[in-house]
Amino acid sequence: MAVWLHKAIAAAKQGKLAEARRLLEQAGAERQAAHELQTSLRQPEAGGQSTAVTLLMVRAQDHLMTAIAVKELAAEFVDLYEHIQS
């Protein structure tokens, strides 16, 4: 997801706003898929089953949260470049 977001910002900076929006949409689709996977992994614990907390799961959560924050910021950058260029 992060690759699409960095490319979206670069495209917006170059004035390729339609491309930037397309890349943001791609990142959004990947974010949705990652969120759905994360939810499916948490459901057993929410249902009362004990789940081991592993370093891998903590790291995965960290990456997802960071990617979500970067996506929000990337969308703001694209909006700002669009405003500046219009």
Walk me through this protein's architecture.
The chain has 86 residues and is mainly alpha-helical. α1 packs antiparallel against α2 and α1 packs parallel to α3. The two termini are 28 Å apart. The mean pLDDT is 93.
Strand content: under 5%
Largest sheet: none
Number of helical segments with 4 or more residues: 3
* Total beta strand runs: 0
Quaternary class: single chain
Determine the N-to-C terminus distance. Answer: 28 Å
Broad structural category = mainly alpha
General shape? elongated
Low-confidence stretches: none
Name the descriptors.
single chain, 86 residues, mainly alpha, 3 helices, elongated
Concise structural overview:
By secondary structure, the chain is mainly α. It is built from 3 helices and no strands.
How do the strands and helices of this protein lay out in sequence?
Layout lengths: L1 H12 L3 H30 L8 H31 L1
